[in-house]
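Subject: two folds for Thursday's group meeting

Dear M.,

Sorry for the delay on this. The cluster queue was jammed most of the week, so I only got both jobs back this morning. I'm pasting them in the order they finished. Each block is the input sequence followed by the predicted structure tokens. Could you check whether the formatting survives your parser before we put anything on slides? The first protein is the one we discussed after the seminar.
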Amino acid sequence: ADFDAKKKRKVAEIYQALNSDPIDVATLRRMAISEGGLLTDEIRCKVWPKLLSVNTDDLPPLPGKELREDNKDYQQVLLDVRRSLRRFPPGMPDDQREGLQEELIDIILHVLKRNPQLHYYQGYHDIVVTFLLVVGDRLATALVEKLSTHHLRDFMDPTMDNTKHILNYLMPIIDQVNPEVHDFMQSAEVGTIFALSWLITWFGHVLSDFRHVVRLYDFFLACHPLMPIYFAAVIVLHREQEVLDCECDMASVHHLLSQIPQDLPYESLISKAGDLFVQFPPSELAKETAQAAQAERTAASTFKDFELASVQQRPDTVLRQRFRERLRGEERLRGEERTKSILTKPRTNRFVKLAVMGLTVALGAAALAVVKSALEWAPKFELQIFP
């Protein structure tokens, strides 16, 4: 009864935020992050477009089959989609699944054709199929296009440089929380390749229960583009004892970590990932802020602008002017802060900070901080992941 009451209150709060003028995107973000996420696919159809600032009244027409002619990516997309049987609900009739697979191919090719700067990667279809199953083909096309030019953009570069850069945040996050696990993994020389499929598919490829996948998508859509790597870190930290009990060699540790458990305590891990983002934001993991300019082309560097745009979903020039003024004020403050040197915190300082803050931050506060943060995008680490 208590659960039902909480669910009803949350649904009411979500619809109140949707019906506000302007739409209360900050509340929608908090609802997506907090326990249970957005609850139903019906609500996701309404909220996901708001989180991505997509106008559902002006959706593009459905892509046509002509996209497949002379398309350099068509054969690879076709192969990947044909292999994606496990991403569809068990028991779905073959003809229905095959129809969805055709729609999946068309959505991917449509986004790539409209955005020639984007490059297809294996695993992209795992993200697109999640949107297709939740919101249908037409809305999925618009959402995936916006996502591909923002959160996923770094994975769609011609090279893997920016993807490697994001993976390079995994070990410093683990080191901040559990130096013993970090040092063990470093001794085993396991690297971070085990987390690559997690990151580039937003865990869609590795989780078998669709409910868990969409719950994570609620969380990631509401947060900073780096949140999936924080979530990857909390999975490793959650498995601390398994890791430390493992043989300290690359093959053993890689095999253990690449086999992701299906019974993870998702709500607890989501809360911890939010806490870690607040306690150890990307800017604090930077080696030196002087290198930050190197990362300006990454998708996360434009996240604040994207976030501000998402809360201006109303044609109100006065409102927009206020946001521009607020943004200029924030830029001035950040410019002053940028003159200070932010280095990775020594371990002694880390433990003092954890003791002061407590081991966890209340999720409401964490969610608010994640939503409101205007953090600097940290410079590229010099760690080499791939030979």
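Second protein, same layout:
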Amino acid sequence: ASEHVAWSMAYWEQMVRRALNVCGHDPELVHFVTGFADIGRAVTASPLVDHITFIGSPEVGRLVMEAASANLTPVTLELGGKDCAIVFDDADLGQCIPVLMRSVVQNASQNCIGIERILVHARIYDRFVDEMARRMRQVRVGAVLDDPPNEVDCGAMVLPGCFDRLEALIADAVSKGARCLVGGQRFRHPRHPQGQYFAPTLLADVTPDMDITRHETFGPVMVLMRFADEQDAVRQVHASPYGLGSSVFSGDRARGRRVALRLRTGMANVNDFGVNYICQALPFGGVGISGFGRFAGPEGLRALCVEKAFTEDRLPFVKTPIPPIVDYPIRDTEKGYQFTQQIVAFAYSESWWQSIKAGL
């Protein structure tokens, strides 16, 4: 685990080990290791490791993959996302807008599956922008454990080094034509002046050429983009190298499914957000620089296993003989070749009748 969570890891380790003990398993099955880059290199390059599942940034993911290559250790990489939501003009905005507000404000959007790009159909774009601006202005920042009840919607940022990066991404977007309607900078809280807060932000009129569409923000920044039709929406989504999750909101179920299946992402939701993460029976993972491989679901469990093909004779006293015509050394290679052709046709023909003719 990251050095930034050294304190909390001891807490989580106690919880996991107590759960294992209660369920009758050896608590030593799970070990937590926290450290800096040298610890990460030692673990990922160790020949004692059978599999690595890494969750983090694309930059560090490449280093993990490089270290694992020394021993050809299998790797699953979940490297963050720039998840999109496409909102068509027939979407139920009464359902859609609250879902998308949560996708950005929840945990200050410090989730790999937080929605970081919202593409809105041109017919409803202006109305959508106005409503989101009204809501984002009302989002309250603070510390839920210290502030009075019911006065906090959005908490602090985990890492102190994120503020310069967020402000630079927003400044780049504004310089290229975007409008920053709410927030846009770090927030100095009157009761928590040392707190790591970023103001809930709304950027409108964002286009695919802006840096903020190609770099993960991991902060409470709502990015709104306009699209004309299905083709335009898909084109703008694919302008980003990330491909983790996605959402499509439409009153037309067929269109929602059609567009969701066209998106080059590892996961897709129609008229919802993040439900693929809540449902741990589904495989979780992405494509592009969001990584590869899956965890969760049967696919994730299989990824941690080494599959072995195994055969044996089903019936007793029945063995697989080699026909004399193809027994080495082969007496007549031309007849042996014709016999082999018939065996292949018998086994792999597309119909029973073709197989029967090959066997005659």
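Two things I noticed about the second structure. The mean pLDDT is 93. The radius of gyration is 27 Å.

Cheers,
T.
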